């Protein structure tokens, strides 16, 4: 009874405040569905696993780390999957590196993507604020920024390039931007990619730092680190010195991903995926093997062969090369494993695992 009275009192107080102030974003009870975390997939089974099922709407995420490690690919695949569900998305591209053909290749629709090449960071902030304000009525679900390091402040642009830069102008810009954007944002996901720099003032510990100051790492619900791993090679023929010789050819590279911070789920989760040069994309076969092994769906024998028994009791067995070929060529097998892995991801997030 006491709990019921407290709830009733809280509801009455919220109603009184809302009636008096006529707030655009009213006071709500903490159990309101408005505060329930909604997630959207990233296009990577591994990234979805380590983020607790995907990126949380209404939040900021920072993807940072090594160059050529898949940060922009994950961003573009997230935009494409959001579009596939009938939403509008936007890209702010201070790097001027967006490729519409590449976006289409990853499943996106350039016709339904708002693109902005900002002249300076102040224009970028103004556009992002207006987009966030109109997001709900226009079904704008995701805004991507690629990248923070390329955002040029109006102050810096106006200066003679021969003059010494004023210290921390980009950090002040990011602090101002995140305060303003967050104040008007409701359910729009902001995915920021960022580069790394060497912090020359650090003598001990990690000398690497991300541009833009500390504001983004504070405002971000999640920060995901991308690190390039080892290369994947196979035998092939290449011309060397006028002769055709057999050599090792790189066909992909591992990327290690780690959640350094996540306020919507458990942090410090790690995973790995392969970016395939042949597919020009994250290879789903290797993601399935990685997570299939973790979930004990796939077994690996001492000789390095993988095996899996499907729902029809058919056994799939072979070397890494053969098993990944099974997964790429047999859509039914691939979807069966993907469905179980996604279900396990949800169970791990909401269960005790």
What do you see in this structure?
The protein has 353 residues and is α/β, with parallel strands linked by helices. The protein folds into two domains: 35-228, P-loop containing nucleotide triphosphate hydrolases (Rossmann fold); 283-353, 2-Layer Sandwich (Rec A Protein, domain 2). The protein has twelve helices and 16 strands. The protein has helices at 2-21, 45-50, 71-84, 100-105, 121-133, 135-138, 154-158, 169-184, 215-219, 284-294, 320-329, 331-350; strands at residues 39-40, 55-56, 60-65, 88-92, 113-116, 140-146, 189-194, 197-198, 208-209, 222-240, 243-262, 270-276, 281-282, 299-300, 306-309, 315-318. A nine-stranded mixed beta sheet has the order 5-4-6-7-3-10-11-12-13, sandwiched between helices. Strands 14-15-16 form a three-stranded antiparallel beta sheet, covered by helices on one side.
């Amino acid at each position: 009874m006491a709990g019921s009275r407290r709830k009733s009192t809280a509801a009455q107080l919220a109603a009184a405040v809302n009636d008096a102030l006529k707030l655009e974003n009213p006071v709500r009870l903490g159990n309101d569905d408005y505060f329930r975390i909604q997630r959207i997939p990233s296009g990577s089974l591994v990234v979805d696993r380590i983020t607790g099922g995907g990126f949380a709407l209404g939040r900021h995420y920072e993807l940072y780390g090594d160059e050529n490690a898949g940060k922009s690919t994950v961003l573009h695949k997230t935009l494409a999957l959001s579009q596939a569900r009938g939403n509008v998305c936007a890209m702010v591209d201070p790097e001027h590196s967006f490729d519409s053909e590449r976006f289409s290749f990853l499943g996106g629709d350039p016709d339904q993507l708002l693109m902005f090449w900002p002249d300076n960071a102040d224009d970028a902030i103004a556009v992002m604020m207006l987009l966030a304000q109109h997001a709900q009525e226009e079904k704008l679900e995701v805004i991507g920024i690629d990248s923070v390091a390329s955002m040029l402040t109006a102050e810096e642009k106006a200066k003679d390039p021969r003059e010494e830069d004023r210290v921390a102008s980009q950090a002040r810009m990011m602090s101002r931007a995140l305060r303003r954007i967050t104040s008007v944002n409701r359910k729009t996901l902001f995915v920021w990619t960022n580069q790394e720099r060497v912090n020359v003032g650090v003598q001990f510990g990690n000398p690497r730092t991300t541009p833009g100051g500390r504001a983004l790492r504070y405002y971000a619900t999640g920060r995901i680190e991308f690190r390039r791993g080892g290369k994947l090679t196979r035998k092939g023929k290449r011309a060397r010195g006028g002769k055709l010789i057999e050599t090792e050819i790189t066909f992909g590279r591992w990327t290690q991903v780690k959640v350094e911070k996540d306020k919507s789920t458990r942090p410090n989760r790690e995973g790995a995926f392969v970016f395939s040069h042949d597919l020009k994309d994250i290879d789903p076969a290797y993601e399935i093997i990685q997570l299939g092994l973790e979930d004990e769906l796939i077994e690996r024998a001492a000789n390095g062969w993988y095996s899996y028994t499907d729902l029809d009791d058919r056994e799939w067995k072979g070397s890494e090369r053969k098993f990944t070929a099974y997964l790429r060529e047999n859509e039914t097998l691939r979807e069966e494993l993907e469905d179980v892995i996604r279900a396990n991801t949800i169970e791990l997030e909401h269960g005790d695992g």
